Amino acid sequence: MSETKIRVLLGSPIHQKPQILEPFLNSLLRLRRDGIVLDFYFIDDNEDSASTLLLQRFAPGGSEVFLQSSGFSDAYIRNDTTHYWNSDLVWKVAGFKNLMIRRAEAFGYDHLFLIDSDLILHPDTLLHLIGTQKDIISEVFWTQWQPGTMLQPQVWMHDEYNQWELMPGEKPGQEEINRRFHAFLAKLQLPGIYEVGGLGACTLISRRAICAGVSYDMIRNISYWGEDRHFCIRAAALGIALYVDTHYPALHLYRDSDLEKVADYVRLTTAEPAADVGSAAGESGLADLIQARASAEESDTAANAAADRGLHGTADTAAPGRDSDQTAENTAGVNRDGYGGELVASVRPERTAADGRPKLTLTMVVKNEGGRFLRQVLQEHRKYIDEAVIIDDGSTDNTADICREVLQGIPLRLVRNDISKFGNEAELRMQQWEEVTATNPEWILSLDADEVFEARFARDIGLLLQEEGCDLFCFRLYDFWDDNHYRDDKYWRSHQSYRPFLLRYRKEFNYVWNNSPQHCGRLPENSFELPHQLSNLRLKHLGWSKPEYRLDKYLRYMLLDPEGQYGWKEQYQSILDQQPKLVPWVE
């Protein structure tokens, strides 16, 4: 009589560099499968064709591989209308994960194993997690979210990323929080299984949990950012406990430099298995593992209690820092990009403010703009700017070269983020602000790579810059539908309001930023406390001006937010109107 095997679907949304994707896929091939039928569901969201080719060639014996294209060609677009999309990248990922949940449910899998594509797994990971018989459990991995900070796990106890115990209504002092924080980190360095409040990125989900209704849908009355928070809160509300296992920590390839750790990790994890519960899985399969797990729970509990007792008398000297907490909030559970800013170009000043007027500094954030409007808008901007500060947020095309070429002769500070950080727009905008204010600007003009003023701006800007009674100018923005017309109807009327784009920098003013990861604004939120005026100079927004761009955006919105929960459904639907009301543009 043949043994019934447990069926597992391994799912991963993949937008990854090939040099990281390849060792990830290799680690999946190393997973031990005793008593398991393991199938794969990959959503190909890659921009690099080499990564797509790796997925197409992935064909482990005895497994079905379902490979689906995401339908997206560029996950990051830089304009006001689609900032919502960029800042809500996590909800695209959430949609992908929900598709995987639905497939696991429809095809009767016993477990869904969701894993990020920058992790390298121990071969015993999957067998061991199944053997714990937990409905939702993650394998731990540790990450240095910022260079020079401590390693932290991707799991937490409550709220967004608080890594210490806290009872409802309890308000411990900072010293007690410090003690609990270090106790939590120390405990997770001991092999065991621990109940947690939040987890992600390497998570096994049972069929029972799937049938109970777990999902990555947004919970509308929860403001926490990140789909894993909403998944975990929903699971807890359904009465499903969350656990982390620490027997077989995964290797997180958070930075390219982490690739040098892969060879040692593979060597160590292919050595002779140790005599513990996890290695027993590799030798005798699931039945033995489950039986061994039951007897091991008691010893795990005793070890945990002993660890807690040993830590309670420890004098903690370092507190959980705000920077590390904030960064981890944006990364735990998803391959959430941070940044490593590098000054890649700083052209020697050859030009100063024209005609004795105040200096005008252009600042932009760009990513993969080479085939769009960047060259066109920079050629226009160079007519009146005195310097430029540009953040290249992880471009893989010739965007940086275009900036250098078109702005030749104008002082240019070009800062490259090796890893895009638009997942948290506030963090990116504050980086942009810090870089531009470091140049000691007088006036700051903040534009996107598909925005350009009408021709008379070059002639009239000098008058604005010499206006002593105003520190902030606001302009109307027109959504172009082709080269010569802008759209004007009940869904498209941005040109009927004024938005701030031009700011005089005053060192003595205490600028305050909106810390929201979405829709935080390009300029500090208290800028309107400064004297401000409306200008009749008009700004042209070119991002909607080509049919292929509109179709691409429409498909993205409908995939991400088909019911218009986070935007305006009627406006989404109007994008593809065949006969929209267009108004000729007159310079």
Description:
With 587 residues, this protein is an alpha/beta fold. It folds into two domains: 324 residues, Spore Coat Polysaccharide Biosynthesis Protein SpsA, Chain A (Alpha-Beta Complex); 244 residues, Spore Coat Polysaccharide Biosynthesis Protein SpsA, Chain A. It has 17 helices and 21 strands. Strands 1, 2, 3, 4, 5, 6, 7, 8, 9 and 10 form a ten-stranded mixed sheet that branches. Strands 11-14-13-12-15-19-17-20-16 form a nine-stranded mixed sheet, with helices on both faces. It has a two-stranded antiparallel sheet with strand order 18-21. Strand 12, helix 12 and strand 13 form a beta-alpha-beta unit. Helix 5 crosses helix 10 and helix 12 runs parallel beside helix 13. About 16% of the residues have low confidence.
- Second-tier CATH architecture of the largest domain: Alpha-Beta Complex
* Beta-strand segment tally: 21
β-strand percent reads: 15-25%
Calculate the mean pLDDT score and round it. 81
Helix content: 25-40%
Main β-sheet description: 10 strands, mixed
Give the low-confidence spans. Answer: 74-87, 272-352
Estimate the global geometry from the Cα principal axes: globular
How many domains make up the 3D coordinates?
2
The fourth-level CATH homologous superfamily of the largest domain is Spore Coat Polysaccharide Biosynthesis Protein SpsA, Chain A
CATH topology term of the largest domain: Spore Coat Polysaccharide Biosynthesis Protein SpsA, Chain A
Compute the separation of the termini in Å: 82 Å
Quaternary state reads single chain
What's the number of helices?
Answer: 17
Radius of gyration from the CA trace? 26 Å
